[in-house]
Amino acid sequence: MAGLSKVLDTDNTVFCAFVTCSSILVLKMMGMSILTGRQRKIHGVPASPEDLTLLKGKTIESHPDVDRVRRAHLNDLENIPIFYMAGIGYALTDPNPSVAVALYSTYTLARIAHTIVYAVHVVPQPARGISWGVGFAITGYMAMRTIKYFCCDSCIALCQNWVH
Amino acid sequence: MAGLSKVLDTDNTVFCAFVTCSSILVLKMMGMSILTGRQRKIHGVPASPEDLTLLKGKTIESHPDVDRVRRAHLNDLENIPIFYMAGIGYALTDPNPSVAVALYSTYTLARIAHTIVYAVHVVPQPARGISWGVGFAITGYMAMRTIKYFCCDSCIALCQNWVH
Amino acid sequence: MAGLSKVLDTDNTVFCAFVTCSSILVLKMMGMSILTGRQRKIHGVPASPEDLTLLKGKTIESHPDVDRVRRAHLNDLENIPIFYMAGIGYALTDPNPSVAVALYSTYTLARIAHTIVYAVHVVPQPARGISWGVGFAITGYMAMRTIKYFCCDSCIALCQNWVH
Question: Where are the transmembrane segments (chains A, B, C) (predicted)?
Fold first, then answer.
């Protein structure tokens, strides 16, 4: 197996693509907080009861538009950290650079599309389902490749050593 | 202290165990989305109002079975990313490989058990409390070991240099 | 660009500060679970209906104090994993060590302050807004610096090579 110093070198294309895409996703998720704040202001829905006067709101009940942005944000929380966990592992499996860069950028675009069709300008299904599914499939592929590389291959090597 | 290139080498047992366990946890969390989708379909509860017709549902009110899976998923979000953050740090503290591998695999099994007793087939307490507590204790141990290794030891060394 | 083995060495000040701050934030987030448990016990609000008898509670309806701690915890989930993602990237951009250590520690203190003013002892706004905003700004700065270093600089270098 390749040493980490080689695989994760800052000159390594795969790793640079991964770090860049992760940072773009960080900014995208920060955008969700801004979108939520904007919806809270428009509809006078406070994040916490003590903000009621601050927003000149009349009630602490939520509003469908606020809930929608919150659901999109929660979906990010369910999907992006696990992409990060699987994506680092996958970068270490010595993948084909073109495939890896394509997967990382497709994931990033799919999540941006998910936010747009879910929370910015609602597009009828299956737009949301497809953008979510693309990211979901990529994360799953990366996690399975990582397990195969780090666990299964090691186990097979161990068994072969033991047999001989 | 050991250099990172040695500690995080892809031949390093501790690191391989960490990456494998993280990827298994990624797949497990992806399973939560599938479980939620299944419960939504059974009970006709849409994720978002516009999915109502898609699921042939009659109401956007939630159902206890959907809520249960969602709670289990949220508990994952509260626990697994912090395990990842503490687990990487711990891998860098040059731990005893057997102990490290045992902690990573116990954590992974505890979280799988947590999902089963909480969301798949409800087992009376304290099953859920124990499986959660085991993971919680392991995360806390790893975080404290990491702080001791990276912060306290450095501070003590600094002070000793300064005294002499 | 500097090689990763140099940048991420365990003797590297920036990296040690990052790992230490991350682990402190892990312990802080674990504290949220304990705070939630305490509020659940005080007000007899179970995490799941089957815990009702365990807590000697009378209803599964939530209580404002429980909701408050949960909101603070959810705010952590929205902010701390993305700090981790941006913070690793930033550590690899060969930053000025004093600036990097200052940013990591300020972020950590801001999040601890956020928890205190939000969930432990409620302080009127803008205390919560400021502590949240400081962390938000730091995460954004780190993500943008990472993109500039790993993506833009590489693109510019590529274009310059192509022109000559």
Answer: 12-31
A148–chain B nearest CA distance, Å: 9
Q: Which of B62, B68, B24 is nearest to B43 (CA)?
A: B62
Residue A86 and residue B47: Cβ atoms within 8 Å?
no
Helices (H) and strands (E) in chain A, counts: 6, 0
Is residue C6 very low, low, confident or very high in pLDDT (cuts 50, 70, 90)? low
The predicted-structure confidence for C54-93, as pLDDT tens digits, reads as follows: 766 666 678 888 888 999 999 999 999 999 999 999 998 8
Longest dimension (CA), chain B: 77
What is the 3 state secondary structure string of chain B? CCCHHHHCCCCCHHHHHHHHHHHHHHHHHHHHHHHHHHHHHHHCCCCCHHHCCCCCCCCCCCCHHHHHHHHHHHHHHHHHHHHHHHHHHHHCCCCCHHHHHHHHHHHHHHHHHHHHHHHHCCCCCCHHHHHHHHHHHHHHHHHHHHHHHHHHHHHHHHHHHHHC
- For residue A75, give the CATH number of its domain: 1.20.120.550
Structure tokens given for A122: 């609602």
In chain C, how many domains are there? 1
> Residue A80: its chain B contacts at CB < 8 A?
none
Q: Which domain holds residue B155?
A: 1-161
DSSP run (H or E) holding A64: helix A64-91
pTM of the model: 0.87
ipTM, 2 decimals? 0.84
Q: Chain C residue closest to B82 (CA)?
A: C26
